[in-house]
Amino acid sequence: MNRTGFALAAALTAALALPRPADPACCYFSALGQDVNQPAQKAFVTWDPDEGVLTWTVQPKFEGNAADFGMVIPSPSQPKLSEMPRDFFKELAVFTILKPMDLDKYKPRLQFASRSVASGEVPKPAMAVRVLESGVVGSLDYKIIAAEKADDLFAWLKENKYNFAGDATTLDHYVKKKWFFTVMKIDPKQMKKRDDGSYDGEVTPTELRMAAKEPVYPIHITQISVKNQTEALFYVLSKNKMDLPGDWSHRYNFIPLWHSALSFAVPEKITPEEKAWKDVVEPKLAETTAKAQELQRARRTLTRLEYAKKLTAEDIGVLDGTTKFDREAPAEAVQNLKILKGHLRAGLYLTKCRKVFQKDEMKDDLLFVEASFNGKPDSMEYERILPTSPP
């Protein structure tokens, strides 16, 4: 199944005949006559509310027929860019593999089945665009710019020999909020060339670290390059278990799944924490299930929680082999978990969730929130397969 992926950084292309020096990368649009898609993107987000520090690590995947690719990432403050290991997301996926089901806890005579609820622009004489920083991160040339007007930003980019199939409306959303723009040139030599001459590949992951007042993530800019829907995979590391806001919350999928799984458990094996959380869940369970069904009738895809755990020293020990990795994965991938050292830390909560956004849902940016349910903080972990876990 070909999934159209989430795009923090929108696809764009430069005309084939343009020179290849460290020109600024283009905005969120593909160049006229060219075609670039983003089948998938993953994001690792960290949020320190005490220090007010937010990071995004992104690795877009591009497909298209243009010789040059680029991306633009709006951010609430000027970011500091760092190169990340190329296999960073591959190893995050290995680290968050769910542990096998606890067969001592769940009644062995039951046949378990998945019970998920759902699985023209004319440059002005003096444009208000400032280049704040230029450099190279990994194999990507980048510039960080600030603009007072979206029209000026478009004109500046066009003046630097880029053409766009779009308008300035979406960029104006960020210009008005006084956000910064990181524009990056992507060398297609990093990508695999297909028989038809088009390109396919993932770029090196890049981390953007910045000051922020809240854990925001820009999805509004993605709307222009999305035909119908796009999928996002988020890993969020923070002091608490995190969630998406409102109707995007993973509660609508996970709470009924978790409660149903508990009904299969041997009573003596249910922990005090699970008993206490069951008391929180049950008064709102019917309402939550009804809301999930309502969202599905409206053709909304429920956010799926795929991993949630407050990391311990033992968890971090698997990164250097001091703790045995107790899940099935290739030996090489387990050995390569060491590249996550320094990026995952004991005492912080790692939440992994997947959301398919419909185009009309992307009217504003995403603000992560602390997970809660029925007025209580939600710290229930999900690190082991449940009887109701999706396949």
What key attributes describe this structure?
391 residues, globular, alpha+beta, single chain, 20 strands, five-stranded antiparallel β-sheet, 7 helices, nine-stranded mixed β-sheet
**H/E order of the elements?**
EEEEEHEEHHEEEEEEEHHEHHEEEEE
Number of domains: 1
Q: How helix-rich are the residues, as a percent range?
A: 10-25%
Question: Unreliable runs, pLDDT <50, ≥5 residues?
Answer: 1-39, 109-125, 162-166
What would you call the shape? globular
What class, by secondary structure content? alpha+beta
Beta strand %: 25-35%
In round numbers, the mean pLDDT is: 81
Figure out the total of helices.
7
Major beta-sheet overview: 9 strands, mixed
Measure the end-to-end span.
16 Å
Gyration radius (Cα, Å) is 22 Å
The number of E-state strands comes to 20
